[in-house]
Amino acid sequence: MKIRVLWVGKTQEEWVRRGIEEYAGRIRRYAPLELLEAKEEKGAAAETMRERECARLARLLPRNARLILLDERGEEMSSPEFAAFIARTRDAGASDLAFAIGGAYGFTDNFRAMASTRIALSRMTFTHQMVRVFLLEQIYRGFTILNNEPYHH
Prior knowledge:
By secondary structure, the chain is an alpha/beta fold. The protein has a single domain (about 1-145), classed as SPOUT methyltransferase, trefoil knot domain (Alpha/beta knot). The protein is built from 5 helices and 5 strands; from the N terminus they run E-H-E-H-E-H-E-H-E-H. The protein has helices at about 15-25, 45-60, 80-90, 110-115, 130-145, and strands at about 1-10, 35-40, 65-75, 95-100, 115-120. The longest helix is centred in the C-terminal third of the chain and has 19 residues, at about 130-145. It is globular, with a radius of gyration of 15 Å. The chain starts with a strand and ends in a 7-residue tail after the last helix. The relative contact order is 0.24.
């Protein structure tokens, strides 16, 4: 199963880039991983920016991908539950799992409708930049749980 992580905007902070590189390398020991960036929209009304960014994200999605949105109103899972979710998705024959992190104004209703699942990393609010690292770390943690490795305590 190939994993794709899509997000809006460039990664600005060097420490975030280092975290992304670290966990992306770790994940690639278990599965192919592709990180895809959609251009951030600026200088328009919030709804216009959301529509344009979601259209760009949609163009990055392969036709057969199972879309998972990172959404503050999504389902919260423990790390073992998230690992089980990855395993169920893999075992159900999904060949492409795509996680999407929206821009500052989130997702349109149409883009939400394309998703099979919505996940919240926390009820707290994080920057979109930090969520990239947190999600990649949880994907890595999920694989270590599935492989009975000692990373997860």
